[in-house]
Request: fold
Amino acid sequence: MIQLKVEQYSVFLPMRKPDAMRNFSEFQLEATKQFAHTLIVVDDEAAADLDEPVKSAAKIKKPSRRDLAKPVAVTPSKSTDLKHPLRADVLVETSMSLGLICSVVKPKPNDGAPERVAKASQKADILCVDWEMHRDNGKTAVDIITRVIASDEANGGRFRLIAIYTGVADKVRILNSVLKSIPKTTRDRKCLAIRENYIESADGLRIVWLFKQGGTFPANMAEFAIPESALPSRLQKEFSLLSRGVLTNVAIATIASIRAATHHVISKFGKEMDGPYFQHRSTIRSPEDAEEYATAIILSELKNAIDRSSIAAKFAGAEALDKALDDLPADVELGDGNNFSTIDRSLYKKLIIDGIKPTLKTNQPLQNKGAKFFTEHLAQPLRADEDGRKLDLLKFAALTGLSADAEAPYAYHKPSLSLGTLVQDASGNYYLCVQASCDSVRVIAPQPFLFAKLEVVPEESISSHKDKIEFVVPRKNKGIGKSFVCLKLSDKAPYAALISIVFPPTEDEKVVAKKARDGTLYFEAATLPIGKRAEKHKRYLWIADVKRKRALRTVQFIGQEMGRIGFDEFEAFRRKYR
Reply:
């Protein structure tokens, strides 16, 4: 593999305040420009001096008979050797002017380039490959693309733009070849589909075909024919199309802000900070707690950097929301059947931006419908089918409430039993571990762990029990795919449903989950529950880890319920403390 050497500079791009945006796509592009910094281009016909001038002869000499008899070695020009050349120098210079670090790779036949490119692509934001390399009819390109997608899948998925920048005009054949090369299970899970000049997915993958601008091409390809000087900006635009929503823009801009502040934050924690940290660790009751504190102070500094960049105000503020809702029809329909209403788009925007109750106070016609109506139907214009809206709400609840779950486990370690761990026994009952974190470490002998029993909320009762639901967890159902289970505490004295289960330590003085043959993770108790004989009842399936603050809130509620004082007294006084 030949690496075209290019001077590369780390460019610090401060988070600039976006000017007045004309539409939502400009918010998408702004977030992309702040985020996407690295581009890898793979092309066997990459060259840096296609237009190098030919040196003229100093003097023209009439050939003699002897000269005519001599064989003349003809050196073909670089331009005519190349079928679909790539101006690497132009591409790199243009990329740098946009703040992109561009690396151009010129692979040789059978040199293992696909494996190396796939590995490097784990760190790159954008990947661009030629289709026809060494006349292999797309074999190298497909190898690279499938390796990159497989690597992304193995690491839990990610935002990925892959561009096929080629002089081969048969985009239909190329896109079909790429799609067929991806395993069917991956195609189905990602809902991959071919559109005009790209393959889109439901979870952040976009594979786009672009035509090298050179020579002649049909008029219907003009919008896809891109010169090297315009390719970097076009790739930024294509990347921005991955960001379809307000929260996606917020996520992209947030990570960009963290990237920009990374070296500044690192500089704050020099070696001189080790002394105070060592003193802190050595003086606290549980020195191991300082390990989590070390990451907490770093994250706190990064959070400060995000706050200083005003990400939320820029990309989730009133202006961004206003532009995001511009695509809705002028008259927005809410409700169904007899309970139906049509409101102006500007009024619908006001309900979302200013809030339901403040908007109702200043609009009498809306008051007739009431806050409950708009609360239940406000998301309807954004997702037409009711089942889809319910699924979106459950997804959002799981996303904001869980650190990891069995459907999206930790990538580099197994879960350990601690406060917030959700498990399921062999009988299908769900439990939340409410053991204090400090009592979940330094386990040197079998130790009791305290659990709160949870109840499953039936799907038909979710609406009536929505105020009582504590956790929403994704689960796989045979024949259905991914669904969600809603869990709540017992309506009658949740503290009375607490149980104690003894677990032995497994490694590092913790109770770490084991992996079963089918890939599921479980914790194995020291003894069987009362009344059970089968060994399977020792196993408690790991379902999820609840975010720490959510788990603490549940524990606090259980403690409050347990601490209620009840005695006979004057009714007026009793009501005061209800």
Notes: The chain has 21 helices and 23 strands. The longest helix spans residues 246-268. The radius of gyration is 31 Å.
